[in-house]
């Protein structure tokens, strides 16, 4: 694979990630263009979360290269000011949402900007958000459908509403790319549909790259133009939703003899 | 193979197995018991020591009889003319006790809070969880805690003379250490999901420590600070034995003069003080957590 071009959001060249003995990602080659909407499918432990962590520079590949939004990941990503600024360009909705339960919704939303703020500015924005921050948080909450919850305590909200707060926090970053890790695993099927359609339509309106890991194959097929199947840290298939080979999904989730006996 | 069928041979052998086999619990309990017996023997303790002698018995009786008749006025025959009223003196002793406890606790909070943050492992960068600053801070905290406030006060008494400020500092040193230790442990154990979510979008570790971890434990921190304030009130009373005019000072004076009714008045004042503090902290806690 050649070098990243200007329209590439993420480019992986033979990237491998190893946790101790476990090879989480095995020489992965991948190219995701700006504005693309991609679903990552695959069983637990197939490397979906690690791939998302690689895309936002939370982990660094032991071998191979990763280019994320035009930045080549290096070993000190994340810890330097430049690393922090790079990470702040990528919105993230983690599986467990990562909201502070006993803070108000607005306080969780403005936390999206920490990556571009110093310590004192961050403290000020949480303790006493200014007019501009209030308006921005309100606008984003309105976009995800819960403007009236602005000053509620976050843990008084339902699971689906908290998910929307996490989405609003990610949008507050004004991200160039959005990553979502299994956003539907903790909510019921109707909410799952809501969340996926909300995120895909937001990404489309904003022209933001969206990469989402999903267990639900039907949702993935319906809402994402491109599907990447992962298995044991390798790409099993990578194709437009309509062209996923017959039986490829089933094969992805089929337990190998090794796993059955394991 | 049916789920509720007869257990296989291998399993039924294991059914009679002791739940405590290989556990260290029984050794710990046995050691505690042995230590108890040995220390009794070494110290020559016997239950008879708990029974007071002839004169002691009378004194004990007088003391406990006085419990139902706490004094409302001086019990001595001669009282200096310029002495304040007895209840006024109790009141000023209570105020002095609270003042010393509050001053000591105020210093302890100011010092203990930042120390707790530096002693927290999430302050260090990942991979080096026991960074130098953390180790130095933890050593400092241990040193502060290892000496009791009474001993700090005795040391300072010799060096500076015992003023209320010196007593407050003596109280604050071990209290700041304890607050810092507990505070750091609370932060260490705080839920990490909000912090890691924000760190992966560029937040610094100090930002997430103060704004994503601290809010999660703030209720516990406040509750613990209140509990320590209660302890500080008792300590402040005890520091009176060294001459600070808190409840302990007057309690000792009355005790030395065998004025047990007065002693009980001071004891009840201390009890009331602690109970009121407890009620207050409970109502605050329920609003915070």
| Helical fraction of chain A | 25-40%
Query: How helical, in percent, are the residues of chain B?
Result: over 70%
Principal-axis shape of chain A: globular
Instruction: State the secondary-structure class of chain A.
Output: alpha/beta
Task: Explain what this protein looks like in three dimensions.
The complex is a heterodimer of chains A (262) and B (289). With 262 residues, chain A is an alpha/beta fold. Helix content of chain A is 35%, strand content 25%. Chain A has helices spanning 48-55, 81-87, 105-110, 119-127, 131-143, 159-172, 189-206, 217-223, 248-253, 257-261, and strands at 8-19, 22-33, 37-41, 63-68, 71-72, 90-93, 177-181, 209-214, 226-231, 234-240. Chain A has a six-stranded mixed β-sheet with strand order 6-7-8-3-9-10, sandwiched between helices. In chain A, helix 5 crosses helix 6 (159-172). The model of chain A has no long low-confidence stretch (mean pLDDT 87). In chain B, helix 4 (86-118) packs antiparallel against helix 9 (205-239), helix 5 packs across helix 7 and helix 7 (164-189) runs antiparallel to helix 9 (205-239). Chain B is globular. Chains A and B meet through helix 2, strand 6 and helix 4 of A and helix 8 and helix 9 of B.
Please write out the topology.
The complex is a heterodimer of chains A (about 260) and B (about 290).
Chain A: E1 8-19, E2 22-33, E3 37-41, H1 48-55, E4 63-68, E5 71-72, H2 81-87, E6 90-93, H3 105-110, H4 119-127, H5 131-143, H6 159-172, E7 177-181, H7 189-206, E8 209-214, H8 217-223, E9 226-231, E10 234-240, H9 248-253, H10 257-261
Parallel strand pairs in A: 3-8, 3-9, 6-7, 7-8
Antiparallel strand pairs in A: 1-2, 1-4, 4-5, 9-10
Helix pairs in contact in A: 5-6
Chain B: H1 9-15, H2 25-43, H3 54-65, H4 86-118, H5 132-146, H6 149-160, H7 164-189, H8 193-199, H9 205-239, H10 247-256, H11 260-288
Helix pairs in contact in B: 4-7, 4-9, 4-10, 5-7, 6-7, 7-9, 8-9, 9-11, 10-11
